[in-house]
Amino acid sequence: MDGNLNMIGYGLAAIGPGIGIGLIFAAYINGVARQPEAQSRLQTIAILGFALAEALAIIGIALAFVL
Amino acid sequence: MSAGFLAASGDTFTPPGPGDFNLPPVGPDKTFTFLGQEMYLGVTKPMLQIVIFAGLAFAFLYLASRHRAMVPGKLQYVGEASYGFVRNSLGRDIIGSHDFMRFVPYLVTIFFLLLFNNWAATIPFIQFPTFSRTGLVYGLAAISWLIYNYVGIKKHGLLGYIKLQCVPSGVTGPILVLIVPLEFFSNLVVRPVTLALRLFCNMFAGHLLLILFALGGEYLLLHGSLLVKPVGILAWVLFIAVAFLELLIQFLQAYVFTLLNAMYIAGAVADEH
User: Fold this and answer.
1) Minimal Cα distance from B93: which residue of A?
2) Could you tell me which residues are beta bridge partners of residue B39?
3) What are the residue positions of the site described as Reversibly protonated during proton transport (chain A) (predicted)?
4) Which residues of A fall within a CB distance of 8 Å from B212?
5) What is the pLDDT of residues A17-49, one digit of tens each?
6) H or E element: which one contains B79?
7) Element (H, E) at A50
8) Which superfamily, per CATH, for A5-66?
9) Model pTM score
10) What is the dihedral of CA A48, A38, B106, B252, to 10 degrees?
11) Phi, then psi, of B32 in degrees rounded to 5
């Protein structure tokens, strides 16, 4: 079985954004459960946070192919 | 272990890679060398797609807004709902009700361009995400960078704008030595790069995943031994499931790209506190 060490590195690097995205949506669900009328306001913020955390995973996958 | 199962039946599996995105041109097959890389000279599939799907987005919005009946038909309803979604949740809520209408044409254009082009990756027989080519996303990010810097400089003046972007309100003292270069780097230099890479990598990775499931399933089914054939069928089932997940991601990326554009514009035209 052959492969590339980059991919293992990327797998490890993806743990961080994974945890981050989990925390963001946990906070979002908590917020909506406590105050359902704030959903539309929280949704934008949650998706923005998701996009920013995901950027790390995305940059990782780019570098996994490039390096 | 799995290699042992597979090697029993001859030819080897070549995993998909970035090379799969290098489609040959539609017309004559000429090449030239640029910076040591061999490039195709001619019109390629992503180029055709961006023109066709920009046309389709225009046709959709034009047809939806042509009659403007008091009681909307189905098409008009869909058009108005999607336009209202971009205008209200992306324009008004983020840029603020004072001067968001100036930017709504740009936001609506970029949202529908991205949405139609991203969904092209799921339409059978087209199945190629236009923005999985870096050249196109860098272009979009450059437009975004020019727009938010232009409106910011126009409103605050060059020095005022740089101060607004580099000095966070409420920060004083020696910590500024650390904060100002960081903020300058992150707000004015890296922003367009991450904006472009986010869209590109999502489309690229999603398409790569679909190729992997399709080719891997085919390989396991046709070349694998009897024990791994069911895994090939499982891979195809997963292919369909991932394709539906991709539909969601494609929408979300169009939304996020427009959202970030709106946030950058909002940050550039914000009043100093």
Assistant:
1) A41
2) B32
3) 54
4) none
5) 999 999 999 999 999 999 999 988 898 889 888
6) helix B74-84
7) helix A39-66
8) F1F0 ATP synthase subunit C (1.20.20.10)
9) 0.85
10) 50
11) -140, 165
